[in-house]
Amino acid sequence: MDEKIKALRNKAINLPVNPGVYIMKDISEKIIYIGKAKSLKDRVSQYFGSQKNHEEKVRKMVSNVNDFDYILTDSEFEALVLECSLIKQYRPKYNILLKDDKGYNYIKITNEKWPRIYESKQIIDDGSTYIGPYTSSAYVTKAIDEALNIFKLPRCRKDFSKEKKFNNRACLNYYINQCSAPCIGKITHEDYMENISDAIDFLKGGDTTSLKVLNKKMQKFSEKLEYEKAAKVRDKIIALKKISERQKVVSTKGKTQDIIALVQAGGMSSIEVFRFLNGKLCDRDNYIFKEVGNAEIVRSEFIIQYYMKKDDIPKIILLDGLVDAKDSVEKYLTKKYGKKVSIIIPKKGDSLKLVEMCRNNAAERISQRLGRTFKETAALDELAKILSLPSTPIYIEAYDISNLSGSDNVAGMVVFKNGRPLKSAYKKFSIKTIVGQDDYGSMCEVISRRLDRYETATEATSNGFERLPDLILLDGGKGHVNAVKNILQNRGYDIPIYGMVKDDKHRTRAIAKDGGEITINSNRATFTLISAIQEEVHRFAIGYHRQKRKINTLDTIFKKISGIGNKKAKSLLLYFKTIEKIKNASLEDLMKVPGINRHLAINVQEYFRKNKS
Fold first, then answer.
1. Contact at 8 Å (CB) between 265 and 381?
2. Do the Cβ atoms of 319 and 302 come closer than 8 Å?
């Protein structure tokens, strides 16, 4: 630990245990990160402890911290509110920042005697009313088109305030019953304004809300015996129902709610948002961040910033996983929007299916960015969910022991990065301290040596062990896991570790943890990924075992031939490739090998003549 980190840690240890906000600054006093904490001492001191288990983003941030400041608050909720305000003001480099580089769309209702409804790309201070923003221009276009059709509003840009020339002809839309033709005086200004009001209700609340309002109006007119007005409202209801029946959308049984899902892979985070209005998918959004972090904190930071920009929020937000300071986030949103907002993590039913659909879309977006297949990204995301990992395991190491009745004891390590084998990072271990067949002891030796190599690795002397894995998988059950877990804990490493359990037919059956097993047969993506990892590490380990056994056998053979040492034995193998060819070689052919004279060639032939087996 260098002197700067040590000084910062000493300062952090002396912080109070109160809630508050901490402010990280670089050497130029620029604010680079702002965070909240229930206990300032506990949270801030974690940054300046061991860097082994931090995500890459946190390590980079900490390496640039020269000092930090803090502000005490009375509660975690107050800390969250203050954090939001400070992030908005300073926009620190290492906080999640939602940039305004997306093309937003609005529904515009003009401020004139005969208002019009248009699509707009921006808000202009012209007295008009705007509904939005929406990220989907297709949704805005469709919604406006439906509103104009149902309520027979004009699409043209004629000036209806001018004197009507009743002998003029209306446009085609009037004759196909899609416009009320104010241009030729076919509708009164009062009725027109009522249609505009109904259209705004429809655009804001959807067809369910509009149907309720219109049914009440129709009933009211009927009670007053105003049958002509009731008939006009009835026509709107019929048109609205026809539009509703034609819509093919995901249904949430009439609920207005948002769904947010997070997928992390390839050093990036993808967040997908589905917005449902009265059971219909009305808008969606996706954000890609070029870093990963603790999933709970990422969700918390995203939710606050996302809704900070919105002028509407549903009462229900469905999430795909845990969120940091959930109670405080709910309280903040409830206070900001003046209605009870609940954050829910569904466990079953239609809500869970919708969340999974949202996660799949997040995985698809990040797969496209990474040039990976959707299956690879989805498998890692599903694995993280099954194992309750804090983030998606991008870098996975798997280990297997191979021996023959305790002899030629070796281990293989394979690496899967972003769901694919990274063969350049594979490692072979020849067991040194364990004699005989002791898989637990052998696995402990291998993991210890792997950690030793990590601790001595530097950028200048990279040995392939310069980073820690996000997940360790062992070919074996909970006994292997328990043995190795003690090694990791005793050395201060908090790396998730699980076993890969096989059935009687040597096929992947489950994932082992220290307290039992997790069945994965029903999780197809995870099952396929774990099976591939288990088969690959077994192939690699047994291949190294056979190679070593062959080398040891050859070493035994050549040591028995007079005059043949390691160098000459290697020359013979390089020239003839196999023992069989050496055994059948003529004296002249043997003498063609560099370093093999006539005397040594005779010794080789004599040995194989006496030892034909």
1. yes
2. no
Question: pLDDT per residue over 410-456, tens digit each?
Answer: 999 999 998 889 999 999 999 888 877 888 999 999 999 999 988 88
Q: Which helix (H) or strand (E) holds 36?
A: strand 31-37
Look at residues 246, 279, 299 and tell me which one is the last residue of a structural domain: 246
Chain Cα centroid distance, residue 74 = 34
How far is it, in rounded angstroms, from Cα 442 to Cα 102? 54
CATH code for the domain in which residue 603 is found: 1.10.150.20
With beta carbons less than 8 A apart as the criterion, state whether 120 and 106 touch. Answer: yes
Domain count, the chain: 5
Q: Is residue 472 a contact partner of residue 497, using CB atoms and an 8 Å limit? A: yes
CATH number of the domain within which 515 lies: 3.30.420.340
Please tell me whether residues 154 and 71 are part of one structural domain. Answer: no
Q: Kindly state the DSSP code that residue 68 receives in the 8-state scheme.
A: E
Quick one: average pLDDT of 281-299?
83
Q: Does residue 538 sit in the same domain as residue 582? A: no
Residue 230, domain member (yes or no): yes
Question: 190 to each of 114, 319, 415, how far by Cα in Å?
Answer: 10, 45, 72
Q: Which residues make Cβ contacts (< 8 Å) with residue 219, sequence separation at least 6?
A: none
Indicate whether 497 and 465 sit together in one domain: yes
pLDDT in tens, 573-613: 778 877 788 888 888 888 988 888 998 888 888 888 877 65
Helix/strand/coil for 189: helix
Query: Can you tell me the distance from the alpha carbon of 266 to that of 166, in angstroms, rounded to the nearest whole number?
Result: 67
Range of the domain at 566: 560-610
Here the tokens at position 566 are 């390691």
pLDDT one-digit tens code per residue, 514-524:
778 888 887 88
Is the separation of the CB atoms in 346 and 352 below 8 Å?
yes
pLDDT band at 41 (very low <50, low <70, confident <90, very high): very high
Helix/strand/coil for 27: coil
Q: Are residues 458 and 517 in the same domain?
A: yes
Residue 111 Cα distances to 33, 144, 183, 204, angstroms: 44, 17, 18, 18
Looking at the structure, tell me whether residues 297 and 432 fall in a common domain. Answer: no
Q: Which of 602, 595, 599 is nearest to 566 (CA)?
A: 595
Task: Note the maximum CA span of the chain.
Answer: 126
- The answer to whether residues 426 and 501 belong to one domain is yes
Q: What is the pLDDT of residue 249?
A: 42
The 10s digit of each residue's pLDDT in 560-578 is 788 887 778 778 877 887 7
CB 20 within 8 A of CB 79: yes
Q: Are residues 545 and 568 in the same domain?
A: no
Q: CA 19, CA 41: separation in Å to the nearest integer? A: 9
> Rounded to an integer, what distance in angstroms lies between the CA atom of residue 179 and that of residue 172?
9
Phi-psi region of 193 (alpha: psi -120 to 50; beta: other; left: phi over 0): alpha
The partner residues of 289 in beta bridges, in order of sequence, read 269
How do residues 123-136 score in pLDDT, each as one tens digit? Answer: 888 888 887 777 66
CA torsion through residues 540, 544, 550, 554, sign: positive
* Residue 380 within any structural domain of the chain: no
Of the residues 246, 274, 301, the one at which a domain ends: 246
Tell me the one-letter amino acid at 167. N
Where do we find the tokens 């502000």?
71
User: Residues 291, 434: one domain?
Assistant: no
Instruction: Using the Cα atoms of residue 238, residue 243, residue 248 and residue 249 in order, give the sign of their dihedral.
Output: negative
